Task: structure prediction
Amino acid sequence: MELLRKHWFDLGLGLAVVVAGFILVAHPRGLSLLLWLSLISLFLHQFEEYRFPGYFPGMMNTVMFASTRPDRYPLNPQTALIVNVVTGWLFYVLAAVLADRAVWLGIATMLVSVGNIFAHTILFNLRGRTRYNPGMLTADLLFLPLAGWFFQLVIARQLASATDWLLGIALGVVLNVVGILKLIDWLKDENTPHVFPARCLPPA
Result:
């Protein structure tokens, strides 16, 4: 488990290559293609946040929570694993696998991507008085065009029913608020044995 806590984002990079290979072999189209690409973008986004440059955890704890222990509070490696792998990977994979059969799942995950675009491009930079934070490049270069393409396709071809929109928006809000923010709050522990390495803290 400790190995996974330290390297899940490295595993995600490997999975991005696997999914890219799947796309080249299976040739998915339409929403299916967009949602598989969205999964790849998630893996790359997490790699930017946690590995290179990788100081998102410390930045998040410092900028958003004014933490005096940014290497572990309130976001810690255990919480990061749960939020990103259990919540993130699970729903993005399901959205890609089900695609046209559950458009509401695609809507929900794309709203998570939109939430990341807003947080990384505007919120974190305003709060931290910075021009860049780890995760911003993939949010703007990958999440943004994919989300725009997805919603344009869904609306133009009328691929989503009213139920799809209601379920998708509701689940998207839940994933952004409960699946990310609330989980960080619920699992916070100043005395946690799980601590981010120094490379995960913002540069001086």
About this structure: The first helix runs from residue 2 to 26. The chain has one domain: 2-200.
